[in-house]
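User: Quick sanity check before I run a bigger batch. Here is a single chain. Can you write out its predicted 3D structure?
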Amino acid sequence: MRKKNTRDYRRKTPGELLAEIEQLKRGHWTIYIGSAPGVGKTYRMLQEAHDLKREGIDAVIGLVETHHRKDTAALVKGLEVIPKRNISYKGITMGEMDVDAIINRKPDLVLVDELAHTNVPGSKNEKRYMDVEDILQEGINVLSAVNIQHIESVHDIVQHVTGVKVRERIPDRVLELANEVILIDVTPETLQKRLQEGKVYEKHKIQQALTHFFTKNNLAALRELALREVADDVDDRLERTNGSLRPRGTNEKILVCVQHGKNAEKLIRRGWRIASRLKADLLVLNVSRTSKEQLAPTERDKIGQWETLCAQFGAEFIFKHSNKRRISETITDTAKQHGITQIVLGQSARSRWEEIRKGSIVNSIMRHTDGIDLHIVSDEKA
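Assistant: Done. Predicted structure follows.
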């Protein structure tokens, strides 16, 4: 007798069926990612739109930024552009992508540039990628573009490499939601040549860019980040396609311990990158000797920011009010309670004398745990 494939014949839950139906109704999302401005993401999007239009596909521009690049601006011609929506803020009128107009127009495909853009207050959504999610829910296909430095989890790496703190960022889950992530890659030498020819920025900005963000070392490091990000994305998609994706959290659980210092968000991002590589669950712990209600407003606000970042990464945030003499005891208790396999800690702020008198948190955790790896992340130097 032929054996049934139980995976094919298992009765799906109503929730699973509903999720599948919603996924089928959703538009197809392609994201072009590059290492830096000027690699050709917007140019490639526009080329794709013209090719599809010649095939009879109704392709329109929701929002494209040409940055005064002649070759890019030339490709806008011949494509319908959905007019921006004017929003008044502090007495100034600014234009934002008109999501409702795009949905009402209902094209087959819409181009949306600058995915990490923050919308003007008063817009329906805070960020442009959220606008794209609304458009996709209406069954409209989307082509988008973003640079690697705008991905949340690499923020600290980018700042360390380039010295630039990128303020507009998107959650890593955005790349996971996309149906396709395509790398637009050029060498640092080619990108510098484009910059010198005036194809990236206006003339008065070229020299400053060459000596700051667009140095060969910076561009090489950003290119490597982009290559790795897309390679990891390809690996994950292959695993899902082949049905061999390891269930999340079955082997590893990562615990990140944060305190009120400037290193906390860096630790959370580092923990997420470890967890994402290992397909592990991520938990973030903050231990305080003061209850949350009695904390200073600035400290409560900071905890709110950590919770928001954790929500972006799909991590569980844990706040513990502990009266124990040693914080390390609360950390080890939490690790044992949740079956943690790896702990991420910041470099100790204690002086050598304090460690002699009070003991090292790291040594204490190592003494009271078994089979848990510790990662010590260096602190930011002033």
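The CA atoms of residues 127 and 376 lie 33 Å apart.

User: Great, the batch can go ahead then.
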